[in-house]
Amino acid sequence: MTAPVRTTKMSFSRWAKTAATGLLAATLVFSSAVTNAASAAGLIRDAETETLIRDYAKPILNAAGLGSQGIEIHLVNDRAFNAFVVDGHNMFIHAGTIMMADTPNQVIGVIAHESGHITGGHLARLRSQMAKAKSTALMLQLLGLAAMAAGAVAGEGNIGQAGAGIAFGGTEAMMRSVLAYRQDEESSADQAAVTFLNATQQSGKGMLQSFEYLNRKLLGVEGINPFMQSHPLPAQRLSQLRGLVTSSPYYDKKDPQELQFRHDLVRAKLVGFIEKPEVVFNKYPKSDRSFPSYYARAIATYRDKGVDAAMPLLDALVQAQPDWPYFHEIRGQFLFESGRASQAIPDLEKAVELAPEEPLIRVMLAQALLSASGPRNVDEAVKHLKFALARERSSSTGYRQLAIAYGRKAEMVPAQARRDFLARADLASAEAYFYEGQLDLAKMQAKRAKTAFIEGTPNWIQADDILAFQPPKTN
């Protein structure tokens, strides 16, 4: 196998009920249960991708005064180019945004725009504006309008037609009032985004390119009344944004080569996992000997033919870049998923050594350790899981593995110590159920665990917190 060629240098809250705003977000979300069940919620969890997004976001959030606000950025498993915020602490970016973005700057511009919604207080004011309507029928009409715009952007004609059918008629005056407000807030978010980009000495060209892309996709809805859109008319908005961006002294500034390289890798990774293998092989042919191409083809080959077929590509990546933790991680992941836990452990341990602060990798290593035999593996798994859960507090997978580990420990210790480990296993199971949104099961496990702990100890308090928790009431 010929080695890959490097083309550039490299060196949720528990429950939320909110409105949403963003590039093409629905105008209203009646309720949203944000839990750790990422697959059920259509979310992607990946250490490499999340680290890159955090690095994109950190300067922008600091410039926006949001650096200490605990903003979480979630990756949605969707090919569309889209992003939105649902409250002052959670931002969502579609995988398609990264997959379609040629440069980091295009994604950074999207993050800057969404940060503008948060700093502008748009979500709170939108909820206030909606409360004035007090009409379920109006809310359905607004939802229909959002569906119509989103359907047009996604190229889904049926969705657009359904949205139009819902939107026509009703209290038009109130709708115009709410949607006119939405137009103002989108322009305001654009202006704030340029301010944040200038403050961090980054170009706004990427944001402009992103909206030009959306403009091309929105041409099918140009004839709609300007007041009947949840965003300003594309031409009007682009004209305003273009003036702000081109006047910046950083307009022609490019992304650092290292950041571009990481972006290309993550983009290839997402394409490899999300697109059909034949699409991946067409986009990244064998003639392309770059790291991203090997990465995408390794993933697609694994999905298509299994780990043995993918191993030469994975080996080439690891040998060419042995200090890149995520090549070791994905090699270990594929081995573990293929039932080779013992073989996966060295790769995952190396990934943890190279990226010690990544909780997701530690959770996967713990899973591999628990799948292999031996008391030492159990102790090592507990160590990694405790470290991971201190940083990834809402990981139901992490708690589920911790429950398994404590259950194993209970089988290894003398009878007098067994009760404590079983109680810890019950508590870990309670946390797992809690973050999966299964509150009844969480409370049942917490009640059983609590009886074994001394009152006032951390474990007792943790169990008591779950028992005392009440989800928000829905209107």
From TrEMBL:
Signal peptide: 1-40
Name of the protein in question: M48 family metalloprotease
Entry-linked Pfam families: Peptidase_M48 (PF01435)
Superkingdom of source: Bacteria
Matching InterPro entries: Mito/Outer_Membr_Metalloprot (IPR051156), Peptidase_M48 (IPR001915), TPR-like_helical_dom_sf (IPR011990), TPR_rpt (IPR019734)
Keyword Transmembrane helix part of the UniProt annotation: no
GO molecular-function terms, A-Z: metallopeptidase activity
Cofactor dependence: Zn(2+)
Organism: Methyloligella solikamskensis
UniProt KW keywords: Hydrolase, Metal-binding, Metalloprotease, Protease, Signal, TPR repeat, Zinc
EC number, UniProt record: 3.4.24.-
EC top class named in words: hydrolase
Ranges where the Peptidase M48 domain occurs: 54-243
Swiss-Prot/TrEMBL TPR repeat ranges: 325-358
